[in-house]
Recover the amino acids of this structure.
């Protein structure tokens, strides 16, 4: 087989991140049977049950990759995607797959990753917890301004002059950092969010406002970030710009509030960095307090423009309840919470523990945690600023902290630093609860933790992000007696 060849395939399984696993039926141009032996073909955007003609795009020794050229028969699991931008936009890549089947494959992928990458076995897996809402479930959306609007296939096919190609407000196209799909609706946050998005585009286009360019590092508009509370009526609009423009911001604020009185606060973040991040070096509050508030369980949390907060509020409560149920707290435990952020997990479990110490490397997150402690009148949680890429042990000794009975860790996607894993083994807690949005790095780290000292007892997958490949997973490890 060569790159560019057409082959007839039947998709028989599903791999992590949306690649169908194919059985080779025949090479179309040769019209003969092919014995695949141990050779595997992965096809993007295909599902079990699909029979297709595919074109090979990559050939390696043990596998090939390809793309669909023609359907012979479509999988019964396929559904009509709700969004008109499906297939072009980089989000919701499984929106054309029945939600029950999405859950099935996410659960299977977690098991496969833990057994194959982690080499782990004899652990219990609970059925994946589905999301209550599969549309309009996000409490935060980040939209980008761009001077290069993505030109659609229909626009190209029309052979007409493309208008407004120098102004876009929407979502980035995968693998194109400088191109943005100009969207007028998205089914991830809310109808109100869509209206604010479209109003903002019209407002700034009418005024010929400039857009920041990552090539020239000039221009004004950078991002529009909308945050909404799931359990109150709070709505924040955060406009990220490269510099201040008080006159324009006041005009935007006045028209924004006139059209959307639901907005409780409007913030202008000033980002002078060259990097593409939707946060500012500082912010100016033009309306309201500059914060919104939301609840996880019975606990109230203050959220600033740049705070980290779980994006699916309803599922976050299930995630934290799972962690607490795995811990089986009696009320006399000392708990260390690593990567504790704004203190949401420690505060959520605070009534069931003796003492909680949270370790976090971002100073603004520690400041948020201290505010949330005051709001919820929590007295047994202390947030501590520490870089978890360094060994934790000298800091613990310096602070004279009591040893932990339980360690909870919720690291970023790339997992834990080997120093942190070694620290956990040295600290020797009775239980470790490891929360992760990346089962592959989670399984890798747990394999190291289970090196003769701990045993993986059970895992609980939770779907935080329907229609995507992302899976949140909670794992319980216990010390071997």
């Amino acid at each position: 087989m060569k790159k560019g060849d057409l082959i007839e395939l039947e998709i028989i399984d599903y791999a992590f991140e949306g690649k169908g696993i194919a059985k080779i039926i025949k090479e179309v141009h040769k019209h003969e049977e092919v014995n695949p032996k141990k050779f595997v073909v992965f096809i993007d955007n295909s599902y079990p049950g699909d029979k297709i003609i595919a074109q090979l795009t990559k050939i390696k020794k043990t596998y090939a990759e390809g793309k669909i050229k023609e359907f012979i028969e479509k999988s019964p699991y396929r559904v009509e995607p709700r969004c008109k931008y499906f297939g072009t936009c980089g989000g919701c890549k499984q929106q054309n797959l029945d939600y029950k089947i999405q859950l099935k494959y996410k659960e299977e992928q977690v098991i496969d990753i833990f057994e194959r990458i982690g080499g782990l076995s004899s652990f219990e897996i609970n059925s994946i917890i589905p999301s209550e809402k599969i549309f309009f479930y996000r409490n935060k959306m980040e939209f980008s301004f761009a001077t290069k609007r993505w030109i659609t296939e229909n626009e190209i096919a029309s052979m007409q002059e493309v208008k407004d190609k120098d102004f876009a407000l929407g979502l980035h196209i995968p693998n194109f950092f400088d191109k943005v799909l100009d969207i007028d609706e998205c089914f991830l946050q809310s109808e109100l969010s869509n209206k604010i998005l479209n109003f903002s585009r019209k407002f700034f286009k009418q005024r010929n406002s400039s857009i920041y360019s990552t090539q020239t590092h000039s221009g004004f508009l950078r991002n529009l970030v909308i945050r909404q509370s799931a359990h109150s009526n709070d709505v924040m609009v955060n406009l990220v710009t490269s510099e201040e423009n008080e006159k324009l911001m006041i005009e935007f604020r006045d028209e924004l509030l006139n059209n959307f009185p639901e907005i409780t606060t409007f913030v202008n973040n000033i980002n002078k960095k060259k990097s593409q991040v939707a946060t500012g070096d500082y912010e100016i509050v033009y309306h309201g307090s500059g914060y919104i508030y939301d609840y996880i369980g019975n606990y109230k949390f203050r959220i600033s423009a740049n705070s980290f907060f779980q994006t699916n509020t309803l599922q976050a409560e299930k995630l934290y309840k799972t962690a607490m149920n795995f811990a089986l707290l009696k009320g006399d435990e000392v708990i260390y919470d690593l990567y504790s952020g704004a203190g949401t997990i420690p505060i959520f479990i605070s009534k069931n523990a003796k003492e909680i110490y949270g370790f976090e490397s971002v100073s603004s997150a520690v400041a948020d945690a201290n505010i949330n402690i005051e709001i919820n009148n929590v007295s047994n949680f202390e947030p501590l600023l520490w870089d978890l890429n360094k060994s934790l042990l000298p800091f613990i000794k310096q602070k004279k902290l009591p040893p932990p009975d339980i360690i909870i860790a919720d690291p970023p996607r790339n997992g834990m630093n080997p120093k942190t894993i070694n620290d956990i083994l040295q600290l020797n807690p009775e239980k470790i609860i490891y929360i992760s949005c990346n089962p592959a790095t989670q399984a890798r780290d747990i394999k190291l933790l289970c090196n003769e000292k701990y045993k993986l007892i059970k895992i609980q997958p939770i779907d935080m992000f329907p229609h995507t490949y992302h899976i949140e997973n909670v794992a319980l490890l216990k010390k071997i007696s």
